[in-house]
Amino acid sequence: MIQRPVFFANWKMNHGPTEARAYMAAFLRIFSPHEDRTVAMFPPALSLATVRDARAGRTDIQLGIQNIYSRDRGAFTGENSAPMARDAGAELVLVGHSERRHVFDETNLEVAQKVAIAPQFGLTPVLCVGETLQEREMDAAEHIVMEQLEIGISALRKETIPQIVVAYEPVWAIGTGRSATPEDASSMHRVIREKLRALAPGSDGVPILYGGSVSTKNAKSLLEADGVDGVLVGSACLDPEGWAEICRT
Ligand code: PGA
Fold it and tell me: Which residue's CA is the closest to the ligand 1 atom numbered 6?
């Protein structure tokens, strides 16, 4: 376990600016600053500025965007770039989330381009990897995750690799109420750590988070699992009370 546990809230397509304002007011009221952990919110892009303004003065809370495009500007209707996200207050960006891969058909190569452009504009990429149920049942989970990891960081300069975050999110665990067991999470985290070490010596400080049906009930046992440095939470972060409880774990 790295020194500071990490708690990331992925709001997905929930909480526009009005709801985001109410959410942040409630969350900041009940969650006092904790200097021993990293907490970050990933609201929808349209709510980024609202969350940024709401957390003003709370340097313990970081801000991220859920997706960026792989180019920095131009005729790409509907997309958001890394420099725009940074300008709007984001410090982090989720890349290769399972919904981006499986709903929007993002490939490993597109993920690699997004991972590579993020740090050029001051954003920390959070590279999400994870196998489907079918891949797990075919005993291909490790192979798939290693491929996503290796290609995902392939366009990064070697010295930048220690600055990323990795999230292991098995697709079958996301939004299903069926999280990985602490043992399953540990064993994949170990493989990811070894691969990172082999690809980039000096990357031992890269936090490896677990995501997929993390809740107030299982957060503690998952965070205690060997090699789990933090959690990436979807459904259970949507109400501020539940999220504050998880962040106090
Ligand atoms: P979940 O989502 O907590 O609802 O399973 C996690 C994620 O998609 O990051």
Answer: 234
Q: Which backbone phi and psi does 124 adopt, to 5 degrees?
A: -85, 120
In the chain, domain spans: 6-247
User: Can you give the pLDDT at residue 2?
Assistant: 66
Q: What average pLDDT does the chain have?
A: 97
- Which residue's alpha carbon is nearest to atom 1 within ligand 1? 234
Residue 31 Cα to ligand 1 middle (Å): 21
- Where helices occur in the chain by DSSP H, the ranges are 17-30, 48-54, 82-87, 98-102, 108-120, 133-137, 141-152, 182-199, 219-224, 240-247
Nearest atom within ligand 1 for CA of residue 167: 9
Whole-structure pTM over 0.90, yes or no? yes
Measured between alpha carbons, how far is 236 from 39 in angstroms, rounded to an integer? 14
Nearest to 106 by CA among 116, 96, 114, 115: 96
Tokens 């501020």 belong to 240
For residue 3, what pLDDT is reported?
Answer: 75
What superfamily does domain 6-247 belong to in CATH? Answer: Aldolase class I (3.20.20.70)
Ligand 1 nearest-atom number relative to CA 176 = 5
Neighbours of 197 (CB within 10 A): 13
Residues with CB under 6 A from ligand 1: 10, 169, 174-175, 211-214, 232-236
Catalytic residues: 97, 169
Would the pLDDT of 1 be above 80? no
